[in-house]
Amino acid sequence: MLTLPHEPLSQPSWTRSHPSVTCAIKRTLDMLGAIVGLAVLALISIPIAIAIKLDSPGPVLYSQTRYGLRGKPFKIWKFRSMVPNADDLKATVTNEAQGLIFKNEADPRITRVGRFLRKTSLDEFPQFWNVLRGEMSLVGTRPPTADEVSRYLPHHWKRLNVKPGLTGQWQVSGRSAIKDFEEIVKLDLIYQRIWSPWYDLKLILQTVTVLLNRKGAY
User: Fold this and answer.
1) Which of 17, 19, 81, 103 has the highest Cβ tally under 10 A?
2) Domain ranges in the chain?
3) CB 159 within 8 A of CB 182
4) Burial call 156-193: b when 16+ CB within 10 Å, e when fewer
5) What percent of the chain has pLDDT over 90?
6) Which of 127, 90, 128 lies closest to 2 in space, CA to CA?
7) How many helical (H) and strand (E) elements, i.e. helices and strands, does the chain have?
8) CB–CB of 63/77 below 8 Å?
9) What pLDDT score does 102 carry?
10) What is the four-CA torsion angle of 63, 69, 70, 74, rounded to 10 degrees?
11) Average pLDDT in the 139-143 region?
12) β-strands 137-139, 73-79: how paired?
């Protein structure tokens, strides 16, 4: 198993910070969204926990170290959507994606309740706590795992010039249907180039539409 230190990984020298990192409007939006999200989480956590326990033995929550702004590690929490030993079984599942991501549309490790949680993104609600803490944003890049970051090429690091987000350019452009990591990197860099607080609001509204249509998620 790959183990990494609890500090930023080896990376190229960073340039000046992206404007979104220090934008007071974006941070205010994040805090307001996190408070609303955590309020909703308080209402849905018990029925989701019961459904998870009835469907599959094991913990209700799943935690994992991810890497955010400038490669800084942090721990995210999600409602568990896979069998408890999913990480150990990863090698037995075919990767249908290209590059430094792992995707399988019919991943047998996903539970019945977990598949519903993923399609609706309810599994990610605990991450509003990460947003409140400032480790994530409502809108940003997909936070990579340790095995992904350990294989980054120089141009991949550019996507970590902004905070990771609950949603982002790639989520509204196809979500899990996008199976090429380089395409995700391209979308992340497009987001950085055209970013504004108002564009964040646009992406949030588009995300709601995508979730209601349940497109591109599994």
Assistant:
1) 81
2) 22-213
3) no
4) bbbbbbbbbbbbbbbbbbbbbebbebeebbbbbbebbe
5) 68
6) 90
7) 7, 4
8) yes
9) 86
10) -20
11) 94
12) unpaired
**Helices within 56-165 (DSSP H only):** 86-89, 112-120, 128-133, 146-149
User: Do 140 and 21 contact (CB within 8 A), yes or no?
Assistant: no
Q: Which residues contact 131 (CB under 8 A, 6 or more apart)?
A: 30, 31, 33, 34, 37, 137, 138, 166
d(CA 143, CA 139): 11
pLDDT value of residue 126: 97
Cβ atoms of 186 and 194 closer than 8 Å: no
* Strands (E) located in the chain: 61-67, 73-79, 137-139, 165-167
Residue 42 tokens, joined: 């308080």
Partners of residue 78 on adjacent β-strands: 62
Instruction: For residue 5, count other CB atoms closer than 10 A to its CB.
Output: 7
Q: What is the pLDDT of residues 93-134, one digit of tens each?
A: 988 888 888 888 889 999 999 999 998 999 999 999 999 999
Return the SS3 of 179: coil
What spatial distance separates the first Cα and last Cα of the chain, rounded to whole Å? 26
